[in-house]
């Protein structure tokens, strides 16, 4: 099963990032070697700052989850260094990923 997940919290007080992380952990536990799940995660809006502030997602990335951030929003953080487990992409690439996915989810 291929999942496309966007994380776009509405405020700094949102628990969207934590909920998405827990959801992805559950998917990975459910995944089998014969039929692994493919998971692409797109950080948008306020979630982008976590790519620059946190390395919590490294463990998820090490399990084959693709972590991307919106390149336009990431420009706001040019003076900071993004954690290497993230890559920058345009929103068009995320849209294509949702079209190709079996399930698309949004955490706000």
Question: What is the element layout, followed by pairings?
Answer:
Blueprint: E1 2-7, H1 16-30, E2 38-43, H2 48-53, H3 58-61, E3 66-70, H4 71-74, E4 86-89, H5 91-100, E5 103-107
Parallel strand pairs: 1-2, 1-5, 2-3, 3-4
Describe this structure in words.
- The chain is of the alpha/beta class and 108 residues long.
- The chain has a single domain (2-107), classed as Hypothetical Protein Ychn, Chain: A.
- It contains 5 helices and 5 strands, in the order βαβααβαβαβ.
- The chain has a 5-stranded parallel sheet, sandwiched between helices.
- β1, α1 (16-30) and β2 form a beta-alpha-beta unit.
- The radius of gyration is 13 Å and the shape is globular.
- The protein starts with a strand and ends with a strand.
- The model has no long low-confidence stretch (mean pLDDT 91).
Q: What distinguishing features does this structure have?
A:
108 residues; alpha/beta; Hypothetical Protein Ychn, Chain: A; five-stranded parallel sheet; 5 strands
Q: In summary, what is this structure?
A:
By secondary structure, this protein is an alpha/beta fold.
Number of DSSP E strands: 5
CATH class: Alpha Beta
**Separation, N- and C-terminal Cα atoms:** 22 Å
Total domain units: 1
In order across it, which strands form the biggest sheet? 4-3-2-1-5
Structural class designation: alpha/beta
Contiguous helical run count: 5
Say what the CATH topology is: Hypothetical Protein Ychn, Chain: A
Helix content: 25-40%
**CATH evolutionary superfamily:** DsrEFH-like
Which stretches are low in confidence, meaning pLDDT under 50 for 5 or more residues running?
none
Give average pLDDT, whole number: 91
Taking the sheet with the most strands, its summary is: 5 strands, parallel
What is the approximate shape? globular
Tell me the radius of gyration: 13 Å
Helix/strand order: EHEHHEHEHE
CATH architectural label: 3-Layer(aba) Sandwich
The proportion of strand residues reads 15-25%
């Amino acid at each position: 099963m291929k999942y496309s997940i966007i994380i776009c919290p509405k405020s700094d007080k949102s628990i969207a990032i934590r909920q998405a992380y827990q959801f992805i952990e559950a998917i990975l536990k459910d995944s089998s070697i014969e039929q692994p799940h493919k998971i692409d995660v797109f950080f948008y809006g306020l979630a982008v700052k976590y790519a620059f502030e946190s390395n919590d997602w490294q463990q998820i990335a090490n399990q084959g989850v693709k972590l991307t951030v919106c390149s336009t929003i990431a420009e706001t953080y040019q003076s900071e260094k993004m954690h290497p487990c993230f890559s920058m992409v345009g929103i068009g690439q995320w849209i294509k990923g949702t079209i190709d996915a079996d399930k698309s989810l949004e955490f706000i």
